[in-house]
Amino acid sequence: LKMSWFWFYLPLHLLTAACLCHSIKAPTTSSQQSFKTDLFNFYHSLILADGKETTVHLLKDIPKRYYFVLEEGRALAPFTITVTPCDVPIEWSILVHKASASFLGKAARGDHDTQEVSKSQNAPSMVSTIFNYKGNSVETYMGMSSHSALYMLEFLSTERDTHITVYLTTDTTSGHIYPELPTDPRIDVIGIGHTTVTLTWKHSPSVLQHRENIQYCLLVNEKHNYKSLCAAETAIRSSGMKLPPTLALSLSPYLLEPQQVMILSNSELSIINKASSGEVRQICMGTKNTYTVPNLSAGTQYYFDIFVVNLLTNASVAYTGTFARTLEEPEPKVTEMKEGKLIQVVLDGKNQKFYNLQYQARHKKIQFTFQLCRGQVQVHITKNGKTVALENISGLRYFTLKGKLLDKYLVQLRSTEESNSSVKVQVSSHFHKPLFPLLPESLKIKSFSKLRTCNSVTIAWLGTQEESKYCVYKKKIEDDQVWMELRSADRCSGPETRRKSEKVLCKYFYDVNLQRAVTTETIKGLDAGTLYLFDVYLFGPSGIPIRYHSKVVKTRKKC
């Protein structure tokens, strides 16, 4: 069976009119009577293309009509119509005028007359509704025609402006643009974790027949299931996200919007759309029919939809969606802090989990002390559930807080790097007995290039108004070790971790005038053209050292 392409023979002005949309206000009479009235002016309406998916835009409460003609050919002529709502539920129906084909042919040739039109309009028994549907599911009508007929599809949206897609085919021998669903199109949840959900589904027959042109794509969101990919894309756009102009789940490259993140790993394409209403993930995993969704939030309900996509036509069909709730995160372990006790915490950079410390105040004014040993650490302090401090720390950091007796403080520590970080923490109400020494304005070590020789270098560092002990250490290193030595240095470790051969000297000094609280030291007995790593340790009354920032200096090759 073939479509009648009669409109190619229409006069130019009729051809132009045939390409215009025919939208009519809601009729007061029946659709059948409206159909007969429209026969004379059918060329003002859109003719539905055969074998092609058509996007139809609907205005609220205004029906839109499309027509197609089936010619006489063989005894039984099959045809299929698939309608996909992309947003709200719609109403649509199929009407047929069985005696209209001969009139239609004459209209195309321009040799019809008024009497013939009147006859066609006065034949109510020739017009019938063969299908009617209301809803937002993808619906397919399969029909057979044994004679020439003019068909009309009428679409109506009563909720709001929307759009749909319509696919008509009369060629049942060359296959379907839509992939097939299995007999059981359900998605099974076979595993649930705190941050993962494992899904499985039965293979689409299309995947087994055309593996290279078909793939599965998964949509994950926190709102509800979607009955079509078209509906999902519409919802994503309306929530403030933007999708690429082509199918969002296509593997072809495109530019992402600022609120999109694309992740490509192990032949899987993941697109994460960020919006205030939540997160929508789209993952294409080829032809695998089992998938574990990673990086979910604990204790959260998610909705999962699987679409099988024809990569050649961009057409897709949806499995029956499912939902699952991830397991609740177990209560985090909390370590009680004791007054004045210094503890060191190692933080896992890969898992990015918080380490929790708790303290109940015995005084109205307390002080938290943090010494960053390695990496980068974020500190979050709450008092009775309210945030009082939140920042990334470096070096030595004090937080002095005022409150009431028995206030409860929670300290949460997290590494902000992928590598492990470590930090020392102390809480105390005895401000007159500081655990750490008084610090200078800067912990940098300075070297003097002009004073470098082949076997000596001169360095300087700042002191304080408090007499303290300073010890200098040196270490010979290679060029390719510089970055690692500086990166991996534990700034909380003391001289006890160093070799005795690395010790250069120890000295005491201070100056009441901070402008003059500077000391220099010339280190001799070095090798020419060699890199050295220099460290200075400051010791306070408690004996706990503070390590200055390491300095790398190279002696001269020739003197």
TrEMBL record:
Record GO cellular component, one term: extracellular region
Subcellular locations according to the entry: Secreted
Domain Fibronectin type-III residue range list: 179-316, 437-545
Keyword Metal-binding belongs to the record: no
GO biological process: one example: nervous system development
Keyword Chaperone belongs to the record: no
GO MF term list: heparin binding
Signal peptide: 1-21
Main location group: secreted
Keywords tagged on the record: Glycoprotein, Neurogenesis, Repeat, Secreted, Signal
InterPro entries to which the protein is assigned, alphabetical: FN3_dom (IPR003961), FN3_sf (IPR036116), Ig-like_fold (IPR013783), NDNF (IPR019326), NDNF_C (IPR045805), NDNF_Fn(III)_1 (IPR055271), NDNF_N (IPR056225)
Purpose: Secretory protein that plays a role in various cellular processes. Acts as a chemorepellent acting on gonadotropin-releasing hormone (GnRH) expressing neurons regulating their migration to the hypothalamus. Also promotes neuron migration, growth and survival as well as neurite outgrowth and is involved in the development of the olfactory system. May also act through the regulation of growth factors activity and downstream signaling. Also regulates extracellular matrix assembly and cell adhesiveness.
UniProt name for this protein: Protein NDNF
